[in-house]
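RECORD TYPE: inverse folding
INPUT: C-alpha coordinates
STRUCTURE:
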Protein backbone atom coordinates (compact mmCIF):
# COMPACT_ATOMS: atom_id res chain seq x y z
CA UNK A 1 0.00 0.00 0.00
CA UNK A 2 1.26 3.49 -0.82
CA UNK A 3 1.70 6.23 1.76
CA UNK A 4 -1.71 7.69 0.89
CA UNK A 5 -5.01 6.21 -0.27
CA UNK A 6 -5.67 6.03 -3.99
CA UNK A 7 -8.48 8.25 -5.23
CA UNK A 8 -9.85 8.91 -8.72
CA UNK A 9 -8.30 11.21 -11.29
CA UNK A 10 -10.04 14.30 -9.90
CA UNK A 11 -9.43 13.64 -6.25
CA UNK A 12 -11.04 16.68 -4.64
CA UNK A 13 -14.57 16.08 -5.90
CA UNK A 14 -16.97 13.17 -5.33
CA UNK A 15 -17.27 10.42 -7.91
CA UNK A 16 -21.06 10.45 -7.49
CA UNK A 17 -22.48 12.45 -10.38
CA UNK A 18 -25.70 13.24 -8.51
CA UNK A 19 -23.72 14.83 -5.68
CA UNK A 20 -21.71 16.88 -8.17
CA UNK A 21 -24.87 18.01 -9.95
CA UNK A 22 -26.44 19.03 -6.64
CA UNK A 23 -23.40 21.15 -5.85
CA UNK A 24 -23.95 23.15 -9.03
CA UNK A 25 -26.75 24.95 -7.18
CA UNK A 26 -24.06 26.63 -5.03
CA UNK A 27 -23.44 29.92 -6.82
CA UNK A 28 -20.13 30.94 -5.22
CA UNK A 29 -17.35 29.01 -6.97
CA UNK A 30 -14.98 28.92 -3.98
CA UNK A 31 -17.70 27.76 -1.60
CA UNK A 32 -18.76 25.13 -4.15
CA UNK A 33 -15.21 23.81 -4.36
CA UNK A 34 -14.92 23.75 -0.56
CA UNK A 35 -18.20 21.88 -0.18
CA UNK A 36 -17.21 19.40 -2.87
CA UNK A 37 -13.96 18.66 -1.03
CA UNK A 38 -15.89 17.84 2.15
CA UNK A 39 -18.36 15.71 0.19
CA UNK A 40 -15.46 13.91 -1.48
CA UNK A 41 -14.09 13.19 1.99
CA UNK A 42 -17.47 11.78 3.06
CA UNK A 43 -17.51 9.59 -0.04
CA UNK A 44 -13.97 8.34 0.56
CA UNK A 45 -14.87 7.25 4.10
CA UNK A 46 -18.03 5.55 2.93
CA UNK A 47 -16.32 3.70 0.10
CA UNK A 48 -13.14 2.49 1.83
CA UNK A 49 -14.45 -1.11 2.20
CA UNK A 50 -15.00 -1.37 -1.56
CA UNK A 51 -11.42 -0.32 -2.25
CA UNK A 52 -9.45 -2.64 0.00
CA UNK A 53 -8.87 -6.38 -0.17
CA UNK A 54 -9.06 -6.99 3.57
CA UNK A 55 -10.35 -5.17 6.68
CA UNK A 56 -6.87 -4.41 8.05
CA UNK A 57 -6.06 -2.31 4.98
CA UNK A 58 -9.33 -0.45 5.45
CA UNK A 59 -8.47 0.23 9.07
CA UNK A 60 -5.10 1.61 7.97
CA UNK A 61 -6.81 3.98 5.55
CA UNK A 62 -9.20 5.26 8.18
CA UNK A 63 -6.25 5.80 10.54
CA UNK A 64 -4.38 7.66 7.78
CA UNK A 65 -7.25 10.09 7.30
CA UNK A 66 -7.69 10.57 11.04
CA UNK A 67 -4.03 11.50 11.41
CA UNK A 68 -4.23 13.84 8.41
CA UNK A 69 -7.16 15.69 9.99
CA UNK A 70 -5.28 15.92 13.30
CA UNK A 71 -2.42 17.56 11.43
CA UNK A 72 -4.85 20.07 9.90
CA UNK A 73 -6.39 20.74 13.32
CA UNK A 74 -3.01 21.27 14.97
CA UNK A 75 -1.69 23.41 12.08
CA UNK A 76 1.18 21.03 11.53
CA UNK A 77 2.59 20.01 8.18
CA UNK A 78 -0.16 17.94 6.56
CA UNK A 79 0.76 14.68 4.85
CA UNK A 80 0.29 15.32 1.17
CA UNK A 81 -2.66 14.14 -0.81
CA UNK A 82 -4.75 16.34 -3.14
CA UNK A 83 -7.79 15.89 -0.89
CA UNK A 84 -5.94 16.45 2.39
CA UNK A 85 -4.46 19.62 0.88
CA UNK A 86 -7.92 20.76 -0.19
CA UNK A 87 -9.37 20.05 3.27
CA UNK A 88 -6.58 22.06 4.87
CA UNK A 89 -7.62 25.01 2.71
CA UNK A 90 -11.28 24.58 3.65
CA UNK A 91 -10.39 24.49 7.35
CA UNK A 92 -8.34 27.67 6.96
CA UNK A 93 -11.19 29.53 5.26
CA UNK A 94 -14.01 28.35 7.52
CA UNK A 95 -14.51 27.65 11.21
CA UNK A 96 -14.79 23.89 10.84
CA UNK A 97 -15.06 21.67 13.89
CA UNK A 98 -12.08 19.43 13.19
CA UNK A 99 -12.82 17.22 16.19
CA UNK A 100 -16.25 16.49 14.75
CA UNK A 101 -14.70 15.53 11.41
CA UNK A 102 -12.14 13.30 13.13
CA UNK A 103 -14.85 11.63 15.23
CA UNK A 104 -16.92 11.03 12.07
CA UNK A 105 -14.30 8.55 10.83
CA UNK A 106 -14.77 5.83 13.46
CA UNK A 107 -18.44 4.97 12.66
CA UNK A 108 -17.34 4.08 9.12
CA UNK A 109 -15.10 1.33 10.51
CA UNK A 110 -18.28 -0.66 11.21
CA UNK A 111 -18.40 -1.36 7.47
CA UNK A 112 -15.19 -3.39 7.71
CA UNK A 113 -16.99 -6.14 9.65
CA UNK A 114 -19.10 -7.13 6.65
CA UNK A 115 -22.70 -6.39 5.70
CA UNK A 116 -24.21 -3.80 8.01
CA UNK A 117 -27.21 -4.29 10.24
CA UNK A 118 -29.71 -1.45 10.05
CA UNK A 119 -28.51 -0.25 13.45
CA UNK A 120 -24.89 -0.05 12.31
CA UNK A 121 -25.90 1.56 9.03
CA UNK A 122 -27.70 4.26 11.00
CA UNK A 123 -24.47 4.87 12.92
CA UNK A 124 -22.60 5.31 9.65
CA UNK A 125 -25.30 7.70 8.42
CA UNK A 126 -25.96 9.75 11.56
CA UNK A 127 -22.57 9.77 13.28
CA UNK A 128 -20.48 9.69 10.11
CA UNK A 129 -21.91 11.07 6.89
CA UNK A 130 -24.36 13.57 8.41
CA UNK A 131 -21.67 15.01 10.67
CA UNK A 132 -19.57 15.85 7.62
CA UNK A 133 -22.58 17.51 5.97
CA UNK A 134 -23.06 19.66 9.06
CA UNK A 135 -19.49 20.91 8.63
CA UNK A 136 -20.14 21.53 4.92
CA UNK A 137 -23.11 23.66 5.96
CA UNK A 138 -20.69 26.02 7.76
CA UNK A 139 -19.13 26.78 4.39
CA UNK A 140 -22.48 27.91 3.00
CA UNK A 141 -23.87 29.68 6.07
CA UNK A 142 -22.09 29.60 9.42
CA UNK A 143 -25.27 30.78 11.18
CA UNK A 144 -27.70 28.23 9.71
CA UNK A 145 -29.17 25.45 11.86
CA UNK A 146 -27.58 22.45 10.14
CA UNK A 147 -29.27 19.86 12.38
CA UNK A 148 -32.09 19.78 9.81
CA UNK A 149 -29.75 18.03 7.37
CA UNK A 150 -29.51 14.82 9.35
CA UNK A 151 -32.81 13.17 8.41
CA UNK A 152 -32.57 13.68 4.62
CA UNK A 153 -28.88 12.72 4.81
CA UNK A 154 -29.82 9.52 6.63
CA UNK A 155 -32.12 8.38 3.82
CA UNK A 156 -29.55 9.32 1.20
CA UNK A 157 -26.77 7.36 2.95
CA UNK A 158 -28.84 4.26 3.68
CA UNK A 159 -30.11 4.12 0.12
CA UNK A 160 -26.54 4.30 -1.18
CA UNK A 161 -25.37 1.59 1.22
CA UNK A 162 -28.28 -0.57 0.10
CA UNK A 163 -27.60 -0.20 -3.61
CA UNK A 164 -23.95 -1.19 -3.21
CA UNK A 165 -24.94 -4.25 -1.19
CA UNK A 166 -23.46 -3.10 2.11
CA UNK A 167 -26.77 -2.96 4.01
CA UNK A 168 -28.44 -6.18 5.15
CA UNK A 169 -31.29 -6.66 2.66
CA UNK A 170 -33.47 -8.40 5.26
CA UNK A 171 -33.54 -5.19 7.29
CA UNK A 172 -33.86 -2.85 4.33
CA UNK A 173 -37.12 -3.83 2.67
CA UNK A 174 -39.89 -1.79 1.09
CA UNK A 175 -41.57 -0.96 4.40
CA UNK A 176 -38.39 0.46 5.91
CA UNK A 177 -37.78 2.37 2.69
CA UNK A 178 -41.23 3.97 2.89
CA UNK A 179 -40.62 4.96 6.51
CA UNK A 180 -37.27 6.55 5.74
CA UNK A 181 -38.73 8.28 2.68
CA UNK A 182 -41.55 9.84 4.74
CA UNK A 183 -39.03 11.06 7.31
CA UNK A 184 -36.78 12.52 4.61
CA UNK A 185 -39.69 14.20 2.87
CA UNK A 186 -40.77 15.93 6.08
CA UNK A 187 -37.20 16.72 7.06
CA UNK A 188 -36.34 18.33 3.75
CA UNK A 189 -39.09 20.90 4.27
CA UNK A 190 -37.13 22.28 7.21
CA UNK A 191 -33.87 22.71 5.28
CA UNK A 192 -33.20 26.37 4.35
CA UNK A 193 -32.66 26.94 0.65
CA UNK A 194 -29.00 27.86 1.10
CA UNK A 195 -28.29 24.37 2.53
CA UNK A 196 -30.47 22.42 0.08
CA UNK A 197 -27.60 21.51 -2.30
CA UNK A 198 -26.14 19.37 0.49
CA UNK A 199 -29.16 17.06 0.63
CA UNK A 200 -30.61 17.32 -2.87
CA UNK A 201 -29.40 13.76 -3.63
CA UNK A 202 -32.06 12.58 -1.18
CA UNK A 203 -34.54 13.46 -3.93
CA UNK A 204 -33.42 10.44 -5.96
CA UNK A 205 -32.66 8.17 -2.99
CA UNK A 206 -36.03 6.44 -3.32
CA UNK A 207 -35.02 5.29 -6.79
CA UNK A 208 -31.78 3.90 -5.38
CA UNK A 209 -33.65 2.12 -2.61
CA UNK A 210 -35.90 0.32 -5.08
CA UNK A 211 -33.19 -0.31 -7.67
CA UNK A 212 -34.64 2.09 -10.21
CA UNK A 213 -32.36 4.02 -12.54
CA UNK A 214 -33.22 7.49 -13.81
CA UNK A 215 -31.83 8.89 -17.02
CA UNK A 216 -29.42 11.84 -16.84
CA UNK A 217 -32.07 14.38 -17.88
CA UNK A 218 -34.59 12.99 -15.40
CA UNK A 219 -32.06 13.30 -12.56
CA UNK A 220 -31.34 16.92 -13.47
CA UNK A 221 -35.02 17.79 -13.63
CA UNK A 222 -35.72 16.07 -10.30
CA UNK A 223 -32.90 17.96 -8.59
CA UNK A 224 -34.07 21.25 -10.09
CA UNK A 225 -37.67 20.62 -9.00
CA UNK A 226 -36.58 19.74 -5.46
CA UNK A 227 -34.34 22.80 -5.23
CA UNK A 228 -37.17 25.06 -6.43
CA UNK A 229 -39.87 23.56 -4.22
CA UNK A 230 -38.01 22.09 -1.23
CA UNK A 231 -39.96 18.85 -1.74
CA UNK A 232 -39.15 15.32 -2.82
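DESIGNED SEQUENCE:
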Amino acid sequence: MSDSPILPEDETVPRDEVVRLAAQFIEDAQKRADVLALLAFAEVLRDVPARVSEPLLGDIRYTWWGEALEEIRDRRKVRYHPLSAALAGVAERHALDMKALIDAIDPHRLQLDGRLSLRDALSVADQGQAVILVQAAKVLDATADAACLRIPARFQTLATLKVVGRLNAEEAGAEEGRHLYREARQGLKRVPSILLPLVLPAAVAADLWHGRVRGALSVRLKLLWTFATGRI
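NOTES: Residues 17-229 form a domain with the Farnesyl Diphosphate Synthase fold (CATH 1.10.600.10).
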